[in-house]
Amino acid sequence: MNKKLESLENEIPLISVIITGKNEERVIKACINSIFEQNYPNFEIIYVDAESTDQTYEIVSDLENKKEIFTKCKRFVCTKKSADSPGKGRNIGVKLSKGEFIAFTDADCIVSKNWLEELIIHLKKGNNVVGGPNTIKHFKSSKVVNTIDKVLGTFLGSSGAPQFLKIEKITQVYAIPACNLSLARKTFDKLNGFNEELRYNEDTDLCYRLTEKGCKIIYNPKATVDHYMGLDSFKEFSKFVYNYGVGRGKNILKNKKLFSYLHLISLITIFSIISLSFLSIFFKESVLPLGILVLICFSIIVANSIFLGIKNRSITIFLLSFFILISEHIIYNVGFVKGISYARKY
Fold first, then answer.
1. Helices 261-280, 315-345: inter-axial angle, 10-degree rounding
2. What is the pTM of this model?
3. Would you state the pLDDT for residue 56?
4. Residue 58: CATH number of its domain
C-alpha cells in the first residue's frame, strides 16, 4: 500500500468523482481514463452530461461498458440530464453518488494519477474542503497564449484568485474552483449543494457558504488538474474574461459576498481614469491627479511585466504581458458593469 494511504489507518473510504460536461468530445476520453488510472484504490465515477450535441455522451457510455478493466473503479454511472448550469449538473451527480467523500472535476479536465490520493489525505486530517491547481492547457499554442498563462499565474493577473494564481505550498485559501474541489458528502448535504441559479461563481459561492459554517478550504499544490478551457487565442481569452465579468456582475446582486475588493479597486481605478480624463478637458486641476493615477497604474503593470520578462528571459513576454494585463482588467470591468446593469433590469 502507498505510504501516504497507510496514514488513513487501513480505512480507505469510497470517493465519488462527479464529472459534468457538454460537448467535450476532444477531451472526455482522456478525462475519464485519467480517473480510471488513479493510484487511489476505492472510487466511483458519476458523469452527468448536459445534453451534448456531439459524441461526448456516446464516448462516455462506451467507457462505462469497459469499466471492468479498471478494478479500482467500483461503480460507473453515465446519465444525460437537462442542466442549464454547472451547479445543477453537479447536484444531480451527488444525488446519484454513494461515496463518503465527493471530488468534483469537469469533462474538459485531466487529473494527475495521485489526484484523489492527495485530496483524501488532507480531507481525512480534518480539513473540510480540499482542492489544488487548475492548470490551463491548450489545443493550440502561440507566444500570446503562453504569455496569457504566465500573466494569469501572477497576483495582478489573477486578482488573487486561487483558480489561476500559482501557489507552491499547502495553503488555506478563501475559495477553489469546482473543477478541483473535494469535501465530505455530509458537509455538502448540509449546504444543499451548489446554487443552481448561478452560471458563474457557483464554486466561489459554495466556498463562502462553507467558510461561514466554520470550514477550512485547503489548497494542495500536488492535487493537480489540467484544464482545457479553450483559451487558445487572445480573442477566446477576451471572450472568457468578458463573460466572467458579466456573470460576476449579475451574481453580485444575488450575493454581495461575491464582490471582491481587488476587483473593486480595479473598477474604481479605471472609472477614475476615464472620469479625470473627461474632466481634464474642462478643468486643468484634473490633469495632475490624472497624471499621478496613470503613473501609479503604469508603474505597477510595468513592474509585473518586467518580472515576467526577466523570469522567462524574454522581451516578447515583457511586451505582451503589459498589453494583456491592461486589456484583461478593462475587458473584465466592461463585462462586470454590463452584468450589473442587466441584472438590475430583471
1. 90
2. 0.86
3. 92
4. 3.90.550.10
